[in-house]
Amino acid sequence: MYRVCFVCTGNICRSPMAESVFRARLAEAGLDALVEVDSAGTGGWHEGDGADPRTVAVLEAAGYEQDHRARQFRASWFAGLDLVIALDAGHLRDLRSLAPTPEDAAKVRLLRSYDPAATAAEADVPDPYYGSRAGFEQCLALVEAASAGLLEAVRETVKEHTA
């Protein structure tokens, strides 16, 4: 089983959104039995909470399913993960510094690095938490745009592992 974990700050907005979208893309591609997806936050402020109601509303309006409980990312998880997807540069930095080995640090990638239309200046998925629903809708659009490239990268890796 190939394992992917999406990570944002509190694990109630961006990362659960990315988890839901990517899980749907895997199912559409017939890879859901080969790839496990979850999410976490760099901090534990919301541990045990569901996703932000605005995240839930935007996901449901777009036809995505979600059943989420927030949790904090732990360094010990690196051993069981193949890919750790950071939603912004701050998460990337925090996760790489948390990684126990250089090999674990190399597992951490920015989500938007999988979107060919994203420039270096647009590498982050902005945090919608303090804004309006429009920010959550923008977040979903950015996550969806990057998910196609991420799906292709994961598909290639999974093919190599199962060949």
In words, what does this structure look like?
The protein is of the alpha/beta class and 163 residues long. 42% of the residues lie in helices and 13% in strands. It has 5 helices and 4 strands, in the order βαβαβααβα. The protein has helices at 14-28, 53-61, 89-98, 102-105, 133-162; strands at 2-8, 35-41, 83-86, 108-110. β1, α1 and β2 form a beta-alpha-beta unit. The longest helix is centred in the last third of the chain and has 30 residues, at 133-162.
* Count of separate DSSP helical elements: 5
| End-to-end CA span | 13 Å
> Main β-sheet, in a few words?
4 strands, parallel
- Helix-strand category: alpha/beta
Q: Approximately what portion of the residues adopt beta-strand conformation?
A: 5-15%
What's the pLDDT, averaged over the residues?
Answer: 96
Helicity level: 40-55%
**What best-fitting shape do the alpha-carbon axes yield?**
globular
Instruction: Write the element-wise H/E pattern from the N-terminal end onward.
Output: EHEHEHHEH
What is the CA-based Rg, rounded? Answer: 15 Å
**Residue runs with pLDDT of under 50 for 5 or more positions:** none
Strand numbers in spatial order across the main sheet: 2-1-3-4
- By DSSP, the count of extended strands is 4
